[in-house]
User: Fold this.
Amino acid sequence: MESNVIVSDYSQMDRVLREERTYILNLVKQIKKAGCNVLLIQKSILRDAVNDLALHFLAKMKIMVIKDVEREDIEFVCKGIGCRPVASIDHFVPEALGTAETVEEITSGNKKYVKITGVNNPGKTVTVLIRGSNKLVLEEAERSIHDALCVIRCLVKNRALIAGGGAPEIEVAVHLARWSHSLTGMEAYCVRAFADALEIIPSTLAENAGLNPVVTVTELRNAHVRGEFSAGINVRKGAITNILEENVVQPLLVSTSVIQLASETVRSILKIDDIVNVIH
Assistant:
């Protein structure tokens, strides 16, 4: 909340400065009393989170100040060093502090970073420092790390691996197509359409690999009809091979989630019985 103070006399100005000095000094003393020697301050979007006078008192108390910590990094830092975020000086107590052996500023290239090591109670957090020649390389590296973490997450939630290379999708499609022959009417048509939809995944994989999608999917389907359930698209060899021998696997949760989410989307669309056109 912003406020303005109108001062008409120099003595009043001196009093305001003395009060500000006393107030800030009491805050710093309370921080020092809690046993803090490294202070991390969240970045403020309205004004400076700390002024020069406060930095001066903190430096005299031998308290290192790390300011402009991003809001989205607060939770990560707290989990990493075992501390709690403090919004009021009344809650600045020793129980809210974390402990570490060393806090230092390091230089990498033309950037400066704060490195915290020797944490007594480290949380389940990891810091990955990515460097690249340009922003595009950094974004691609970040996406790759994110994809890898998502794979690990899937394996933690469901510890099961299946063959990759389009093998599970074409295997399910073959069984659904075979089942559709025993059905009649609308049910047979829906099951057959579901099987055809599953073949889009190996078809897209073959197309991205520079192969003929029609020929590749046909060969893959024939292999699974013969009982070769682990046959998949070998991108390196450009042929259909036993994909498990190539160590090409994927988490089971990925395939089940794809089928589940796609099915839920189709059901939601089928529930739409009319479209209302709105003219602006």
